[in-house]
Amino acid sequence: MASNTPLVLRLGTAQTLAWASSYYLPAILARPMAEGAGVSEGMVWTAFSAALLLSAAIGPFAGRAIDRFGGRPVLVASNLVFAAGLGLLSLADGPAPLFAGWLLIGVAMGGGLYEAAFSALVRLQGEAARDAITGITLLAGLASTLGWPLSGWMEAQWGWRGACLGWAALHLLLGLPLNARLPRALALPPPRPHSDGQETGAPPRAPRHVAWVLAYVFAATWFVSTALASHLPAMLMASGLSLAGALAVGALVGPAQVAGRLLEFGGLRRFHPLVSARVAAAMHPAGVLVWMAAGAVAAPVFAMLHGLGNGILTIAKGTLPLAYFGPVGYGRRQGWIVAPSRVAQAFAPLLFGALVERWGAQALWVSGALVASALLCLLWLHPSPATPRA
Fold first, then answer.
1. Where's the Major facilitator superfamily (MFS) profile domain (predicted)?
2. For the chain, which domains are there?
3. Which candidate among 121, 168, 198, 342 keeps its CA 20 to 30 Å from the CA of 48?
4. For 10-68, how does the pLDDT look when each residue is reduced to its tens digit (9 = 90+)?
5. Is the pLDDT of residue 166 over 90?
C-alpha cells in the first residue's frame, strides 16, 4: 500500500473529520444543544435520525455523480455543505433551525462519508482499491476516539454553538483542502456490449439477488452496531456492572474495531471478501452466546468480539459490492445497497432502546439473531469470480 499512502492519509483524515463532526456529534452535544435551543433532547435525536434518513436518500445520487465526475467534486461539495449545516446549527434557537441544520448535515453525510470515499477510490483504482479502503477505515476508525474529546473540549471552551462553528471551520480549513487534492478521475470509455449483453471489461455479472442480500446484511449489522453504540453501557449496568465498569468494557469496542481492520489488512485480504465478511458476522453472535452463558463477567469478551466483527464489516461494505459487481457503476450501486443500512441506523437507538428497557441485557438475543441471519445470508452466497483470489 506504499504507493497509496498519500491518498489514504488524505482521504482517511478527511473521513475522520466527517464522521466526528456528524455521526458522533450528538453523543457529546445533544444535551447542551437541547438546552441552548430550547427543545427537548429527544427532539435533537429526532433531528439526527431525520438527517440519517435523508443521507440514505442522497447516497445513490451522490454515487452516480462520483461514477460520472469522480470523487473530488462530490467530496469537496460535502465539506462545504457540512460547514453550512454546522454553521446553521450553531444559530438554532428553536425546532425549525435545528432541523434545518441537521438536514443540511444529512445531505453532506449522503455524499461525504464512507460510501462516497469508497466510490472515489474505486473510481481511481478500480478493483485494486481494497487495500486503500482498508487503510481509510483504519484511520477513520479513530473518529470517535478523537472526535468525542475534541467536541467536549470545544464545548467546554466555547459552548456548544462554538463547538459547531469549530467543526465547520475544520471542514473549510482542513477537510476541503484535503479532498481538493484528490487526483482527478479519468473519463471512463463507454462500455461495449458483447453479443450476450455483457459489457467488455466488466467482471462477470452477479445474479440480481446478490445486491438484495448484501443490502439486508449491511442493514442488519449496522442496526446492531448503532443500537449497541447507544445502549451497551445501559445493558452492562443492567447486568450488574458499575458505571465505571460499564464504561471500561464499552471502551474495548473501539480498539477491537481497529484490531479487526488490521486483521483484514494483515491476513484476511488474501481471501475473497466474502470470507472476511463471514468471519466478521460470526463474531457478534458468538459474543452473545459467551455473555449469556457466563454472565456479565464475560462482557469484555463480548465487547472485543463485537468490535472485531464491526471493524471487518465496515471494510466489507466497500469490498463486497466491488467483488461482485466490479468498478463499473460502483458508486450508484453502492448508494442503493447501503441506503437501507442508513434507514436502519436512524431507527436503531429508539427500537433497541425499547427492547433494553423491557428485557435489559436479554435484548442481546435479538441482536444476536439479527447478525446470525446476516451470517446465514453470507453462507448462502458463493464467492464471485469478479475478484480473483490473491
1. 7-386
2. 2-180 (1.20.1250.20), 209-380 (1.20.1250.20)
3. 121
4. 999 999 999 989 988 887 888 899 999 999 988 988 898 899 899 888 988 888 888 88
5. yes
Note the pLDDT of residue 8. 87
Dihedrals phi, psi of 113, to nearest 5 degrees: -100, -160
Nearest to 62 by CA among 115, 102, 98, 129: 115
Where is mean pLDDT largest: 190-199, 276-285, 331-340?
A: 276-285
| pLDDT at res. 273 | 83
The 3-class SS string of the chain reads CHHHHHHHHHHHHHHHHHHHCCCCCHHHHHHHHHHHHCCCHHHHHHHHHHHHHHHHHHHHHHHHHHHHHCHHHHHHHHHHHHHHHHHHHHCCCCHHHHHHHHHHHHHHHHHHCHHHHHHHHHHHHHHHHHHHHHHHHHHHCCHHHHHHHHHHHHHHHHHHHHHHHHHHHHHHHHHHHHHHCCCCCCCCCCCCECCCCCECCCCCCCCCHHHHHHHHHHHHHHHHHHHHHHHHHHHHHHCCCCHHHHHHHHCCHHHHHHHHHHHHHHCHHHCCHHHHHHHHHHHHHHHHHHHHHHCHHHHHHHHHHHHHHHHHHHHHHHHHHHHHHCCCCHHHHHHHHHHHHHHHHHHHHHHHHHHHHHHHHHHHHHHHHHHHHHHHHHHHCCCCCCCCCC
pLDDT tens, position by position, 219-260: 999 899 888 877 777 778 777 777 777 777 777 887 888 888
Whose cell is 488474501? That residue is 270
Give me the count of residues in the chain: 390
pLDDT at 199: 47
Query: Are the CB atoms for 326 and 203 separated by under 8 Å?
Result: yes
- For 112-154, what is each residue's pLDDT tens digit? 988 888 888 888 887 778 778 888 888 887 787 788 888 889 9
- Report whether 112 contacts 75 (CB < 8 A): yes
For a pLDDT cut of 90, what percent of the chain falls above it? 31
- Per-residue b or e along 98-135, where b marks 16 or more CB atoms closer than 10 Å to that residue's CB: bbbbbbbbbbbbbbbbbbbbbbbbbbbbebebbbbbbb
